[in-house]
Amino acid sequence: MLHLRMIVPPDRTPSVVRLIESTVGTTHLVVLAGAARDPSGDLVLCDVAREAAHELLNGLRELRIDEDGSIAVDDIDFSLSTRADAAEREAPGEPADAVIWEQLAGATHEESTLSITYSAFMILATMIAACGVVLDNAVLIVGAMAVGPEFGPLAGVCTAIVQRRPKLAARSLMALFVGFTAAMVATAVFSLGMDALGLFSKEQLDAARPQTSFIWQPDPFSFVVALLAGVAGTLSLTSSKSGALVGVAISVTTVPAGANAAVALSYGDVGQMWGSIAQLTLNLFGIMLAGTLTLYGQKMLWRTKRGSWRRESKP
């Protein structure tokens, strides 16, 4: 269940109440007339099943509540209410299958913004991966994958394509390009510094490296894993199971590939550099392709389920 808190202009409160009451899957409606001060208006509260949230939010936006008032949405982690249980049973579909597009767009907008924090995580993750590459240490590679924040912009691109939001797509692609470029340049400088201290060497980079050589040698399995990770990551976002993102992060060699390219560049190893860039490009494309197709599939599936439920519910 989700909890909605709205500030509604008084002249539109009756319309909002009718909308909530007519939406299957809503309950616990509360109206406090004149309770809001900034902006002034009525405070309207209600709970709604995840499966019905998108329809309700669309209706509220058509009433311009988001423009002239406010709409806040919170997840209800635990609730004891027979009315809530009944509302969830009445709503079509399953909560885990419901995609709240407004929530997804908001989350990806925040995660795909090019910020100092995002850039810092990218640079730190790539530097950690550089240590893992040179030392042939799989533990450091996994750690770097988990630290890397690149899935946010990747999800932003997928969402932007499905929702036709060119500004979100441009912002996400910019975050990816600038983030990886800055991280690779910083890591190349870091590698030269480590070499000057005697901690990195070209001999280590050119060694067999059985644990990490796959990073700059892309093969069909690289693309297959990227596709699977893209599907899993997208499902984890749309179903609010964000903990699964950690597993997705450590399954795809985006950050390590960028790190290997940066270290190879610092030593003038063109072969490893281009192999790493190919691995990076392959994985980024695979994740975005799979994520976009997953969102399209969820959109079509939910539309089909919704249509079937409406036909069955007609007398």
Describe the structure.
By secondary structure, the chain is an alpha+beta fold. The chain has helices spanning 13-22, 50-62, 65-68, 82-90, 101-111, 116-135, 138-147, 151-163, 166-196, 202-206, 220-238, 244-249, 254-266, 270-313, and strands at residues 2-8, 26-37, 40-48, 70-75. It has a four-stranded antiparallel sheet with strand order 2-3-1-4. A hairpin with a 2-residue loop joins strand 2 and strand 3 (40-48). Helix 8 (151-163) packs antiparallel against helix 9 (166-196) and helix 13 (254-266) runs antiparallel to helix 14 (270-313). The two termini are 27 Å apart.
What's the number of helices? 14
Based on CA atoms alone, the radius of gyration comes out at: 24 Å
Strand fraction: 5-15%
Strand order of the largest sheet: 2-3-1-4
Unreliable parts:
none
- How far do the termini sit from each other? 27 Å
Global morphology: elongated
> Helical proportion?
55-70%
Let me know the number of strands.
4
- The count of domains is 2
Structural class: alpha+beta
* SSE order: EHEEHHEHHHHHHHHHHH
Largest β-sheet summary = 4 strands, antiparallel
Q: Please, what is the average pLDDT?
A: 87
